[in-house]
Write a structure and sequence with these properties.
Layout (H helix, E strand, L loop, with lengths): L2 H14 L6 E5 L4 E9 L3 E6 L2 E6 L3 E5 L1 E6 L3 E10 L3 E6 L2 E6 L3 E6 L2 H6 L3 H17 L3 H14 L4 H13 L3 H14 L4 H6 L10 H8 L1 H20 L4 E5 L4 E5 L3 H21 L9 E5 L3 H8 L7 E4 L4 E4 L6 H19 L5 H10 L3 E4 L2 E4 L4 H10 L6 H6 L1 H7 L1 H17 L3 H11 L7 H8 L3 H12 L12 E2 L2 E5 L4 E6 L4 H5 L6 E5 L2 E2 L3 H8 L7 E8 L2 E8 L1 E2 L1
Parallel strand pairs: 12-13, 13-15
Antiparallel strand pairs: 1-2, 1-5, 2-3, 3-4, 6-7, 6-10, 7-8, 8-9, 11-12, 14-15, 16-17, 18-25, 19-20, 20-21, 21-22, 21-23, 23-24
Helix pairs in contact: 1-3, 3-4, 4-5, 5-6, 10-12, 12-13, 13-17, 14-17, 16-17, 18-19
């Protein structure tokens, strides 16, 4: 059974419940207005409430608490109030406390209208409740009851691949072989294309010798190709002729983009080249299924058409085998996320699920890289200064604790955790031990899920000695390559209608010293209008470290001038 999916949903319900939230506007006279925010201007906010649309002047508003629904990978979602955003995570306030959610796990974020939900329950909410009910039956081995519950899900969505697959498993466990085979085929046709999982799942042991099961595997390539064509037709209908679609049968890729032909050729070429690098260096199992790569040409389309947050780099959804890239954040994003896609295929072939420090170690190492003698080679990048500041301030996690409990550390401080795991991998690369460690880790996985014991075995020293050597190795490193090695501001940004909104200010950075704050919107820099990250980088590139530059920002509805002295990364 696809137990990991339903278990994940159940966990979220236990943590967050089913509380409904809505946007709340607190007025200076003490009143509150609840509803969906339709429009924001410098002078007013337009809100849709159950009583109709209201226009509220800005000068009457005390504060705005906008509630959202966050859709996550694996058909999960959670609801609450966004406290802060960074490039790597959002912090969400829920009825059960605060939670940091990694950006890579987020499919999309939408405003939550509680009134609408009360009046007419959403079908997706019904499906979530039904999944939890079905999972409870599966836990109790109540196969008939689970099947009846999945039938209700399939009435809502006949193409729900997980419901079809788990029904097949339940029928198999009951010995109802014909129904099990029929539902398994429907699941594959609907998108459950993880044949490695199907082959291993003990719940399907009763039907291994059935003709229909054998035929399914005999037709595997045909079925995978059919699902690829289904995917292509779906995106053709949704995106129109503006987007070109490239299907690469050799590398199992469907690349969909509206960039110009020359650039698209280059992107497809890079995907093919790094696939070869990773298969040569690390990943034994290649994807049997097609990976869909969505590459809109700008941040606006990335956000509106593909559900990404404009300031975020991209994400890979292992459930749908879909990679979405925000090109505005740089070409390294694509290779980072594509590395995840290939790593997931390797894990599926191995029947393993590696911890986040390993998953992101690979991804971050190749977000800035080159190719040497047919292999990928990670370069120093912008995460190094983050790590070095943490080391200098005594804020780094002890490596034994970090590796043993990486998921909790990534939730606590995403930026630092990304930097630490990248430079653990970089250290192993430079010591020519990364390939050896990963190969040994796959062998040892059953008895060493975290990879810590294997790290000590391959390095030949205790983790404490490894950490000492690692810190000494990092100490003299300097990031001084390319555009990012120049003048430094120290902010995390996202696109908004007026300009660039600051979502985080790095402590001790030039921005922090100048008095810039989270929530400020950069309108101009050196009298040049700033609308995108490209605009900002263009102005910064014309200056050197130590130059004083003038910003015009908007804070709490008022424009303000701030002078900042550019620092060094």
């Amino acid at each position: 059974m696809r137990k990991c999916v339903v278990a994940g949903i159940l966990l979220l319900v236990l943590l967050f419940g089913a509380t409904a939230f809505a946007g709340v506007i607190k007025l200076k006279n003490g009143d509150e207005v609840t509803g969906r925010i339709l429009k924001r201007t410098d002078t007013h906010i337009e809100v849709e409430t159950k009583y109709g649309k209201l226009v509220i002047p800005r000068d009457k508003i005390e504060s705005i608490q906008e509630r959202v629904r966050v859709h996550l990978k694996g058909d999960r979602r959670m609801e609450g109030e966004i406290i802060s955003r960074t490039e790597d995570a959002i912090k969400l306030k829920t009825g059960y406390g605060e939670l940091s959610i990694p950006t890579r796990d987020i499919i999309r974020i939408e405003p939550l209208d509680a009134e609408e939900k009360k009046e007419e329950p959403r079908k997706t909410g019904n499906v979530g409740a039904l999944r939890r009910k079905a999972h409870a039956h599966l836990q109790k081995k109540e196969w008939e009851e689970a099947i009846d519950t999945y039938k209700k899900i399939l009435e809502i969505n006949p193409e729900d691949s997980n419901a079809l697959y788990n029904s097949a498993c339940a029928y198999s466990l009951l010995g109802r072989k014909a129904e099990a085979v029929a539902h398994l085929r429907k699941a594959v046709e609907a998108g459950f294309i993880d044949f490695a999982h199907i082959k291993r799942d003990p719940d399907l042991d009763n039907i291994r010798e059935e003709d229909g099961y054998k035929k399914l595997f005999a037709e595997k390539e045909k079925l995978l190709a059919g699902y690829a064509e289904k995917t292509i037709e779906k995106y053709k209908k949704r995106l129109g002729e503006e987007y070109a679609i490239r299907k690469d049968e050799d590398y199992k890729l469907i690349v969909i983009s509206n960039v110009d032909k020359g650039r698209l050729d280059g992107l497809v070429g890079a995907l093919r080249a790094y696939a070869e690098c990773h298969w040569k260096g690390f990943f034994k199992f290649r994807p049997e299924y097609y990976i869909t790569v969505l590459i809109p040409k700008n941040s606006e389309e990335y956000a509106k058409k593909f559900g990404g947050r404009s300031g975020a780099a991209g994400f890979y959804n292992p459930g749908t085998k879909t990679l979405t890239v925000n090109l505005a954040t740089g070409g390294g994003t694509m290779i980072h996320e594509f590395t995840h896609a290939l790593h997931y295929a390797d894990m599926e072939g191995l029947d393993q699920r590696h911890p986040i420090w390993v998953i992101e170690g690979f991804g971050t190492l190749y977000e800035q890289c080159t190719r040497r003698e047919g292999s990928g080679y990670g370069l120093l990048n912008w995460r190094l200064p983050i790590l070095k500041r943490a080391i200098a301030g005594g804020e780094c996690y002890p490596l034994k604790d970090f590796i043993s409990k990486s998921s909790s550390h990534f939730r606590r401080d995403t930026s630092l955790s990304y930097a630490m795991t990248r430079y653990i991998f970089y250290f192993l690369q430079e010591k020519k031990l990364l390939r050896k460690w990963y190969a040994k880790y796959r062998e040892n996985y059953k008895n060493d899920r975290t990879g810590l014991k294997t790290l000590e075995e391959v390095y030949g020293k205790s983790i404490e000695e490894f950490e000492k050597d690692w810190l000494e190795f990092v100490k003299p490193l300097e990031y001084s390559r390319g555009r990012r090695s120049g003048p430094y501001i120290g902010v995390q940004l996202e696109d908004v209608d007026e300009g660039l909104k600051i979502v985080e200010v790095v402590k001790g950075s030039p921005a922090d010293k100048a008095g810039l704050k989270s929530g400020d919107v950069i309108l101009k820099m050196q009298d040049k209008q700033i609308k995108t990250l490209k605009d900002l980088r263009g102005v910064v590139a014309k200056h050197k470290v130590g130059d004083e530059v003038k910003f015009i920002i908007k804070r709490a509805g008022e424009e303000k001038e701030i002078t900042l002295k550019l620092g060094k990364r």
